[in-house]
From TrEMBL:
GO terms for molecular function: methyltransferase activity. InterPro entries: SAM-dependent_MTases_sf. This is Methyltransferase domain-containing protein. One of its GO terms (biological process) is methylation. Coiled coil: none annotated.
Length: 254
């Protein structure tokens, strides 16, 4: 339990992070803007992945603000004038206390069996009044809305196989559904959140994310090569429509 499922497939991660960024960055940026982020804020971006959020934060808080971006794999993260890149495991590593105006993590705690302890660690890294923002998925709503019956079955087989793999590595599949409660339970104030189920058409950034995720775990999926090729075709075809993972966000202040 607890090994990051997508960590050992380096060349497949670029398209995966691209899909995450196209799908989620606009919503993440809008939520953080609503908090009043401005020049001078000190930010911690946890599990920064491809770096799109850290780079945006760095632009918004410049010239006097600063971003520390962490990950267990920092190969895609860029040092800049006001960005410090830290190879850091948020489960075992220490973070400075009372240090940040904003701590943000997207689709990181989802994977971590120790998510509640990590949440408390992120809370303690905030200065009093600072904001913790989480963006997560609730994976359960994914269903097929439009595809031929055999294709629909294949899409659901891939969903179920992927969720089983995630579950076995300690991910909490519906974690997104309870992040507001988790922030309140951690003692944060002014907690609010949102949950959105979208329709993802084949070729959209959402279906690209499903395809890149399946590629990351291809060797572990119980599918023939023909079935896997068909799945990738379906994720690229505008005739396919699925209801999305619920995109869940929550914020609270220390
Ligand atoms: C699904 S990706 C999300 C990346 C990025 N936050 C985004 O939304 O585009 C999860 C990220 O968490 C990182 N990660 C996994 N376990 C971690 C840990 N224990 N400490 C820090 N980062 C971790 C992974 O390396 C990966 O970059």
């Amino acid at each position: 339990m607890g090994t990051y499922l997508f960590g050992d497939t380096a060349e497949l991660l670029d398209p995966h992070f691209d899909a995450l960024s196209s799908l989620l960055d606009a919503g993440t940026f809008a939520r953080v803007e609503q908090l009043g982020i401005a020049n001078g804020w000190r930010c911690l971006e946890v599990g920064g992945g491809g770096g799109s959020v850290a780079n945006w934060l760095a632009d918004v808080v410049a010239p006097s603000g600063h971003v520390t971006v962490t990950d267990i794999d920092v190969s895609r993260l860029e040092e800049r004038d006001n960005v410090t890149v830290l190879e850091h495991d948020v489960v075992s590593g220490v973070l400075p206390g009372n240090a940040y105006d904003l701590v943000h993590a997207r689709l990181v705690l989802f994977h971590l069996p120790a998510r509640e302890a990590v949440l408390r660690k992120l809370r303690d890294a905030l200065r009093p009044g600072g904001w913790l923002v989480l963006d997560e998925f609730d994976c359960l709503p994914l269903e097929v809305l439009s595809a031929a019956p055999d294709d629909a079955k294949l899409i659901m087989r891939v969903k179920n196989a992927l969720l089983t793999l995630l579950d076995h590595t300690g991910a909490e599949l519906a974690w997104g559904a309870r992040i507001e409660r988790a922030l309140s339970d951690a003692g944060l104030h002014d907690v609010s959140g949102s949950r959105e189920v979208q329709e993802w058409e084949g070729g959209s950034s959402g279906c690209r994310l499903l395809a890149t995720t399946a590629r990351l775990v291809r060797a572990k999926l119980p599918l023939s090569d023909d079935e896997f090729a068909r799945y990738l075709e379906l994720m690229a075809s505008p005739e396919t429509v699925v209801s999305s993972y619920a995109i869940c966000s929550a914020q609270g202040r220390r």
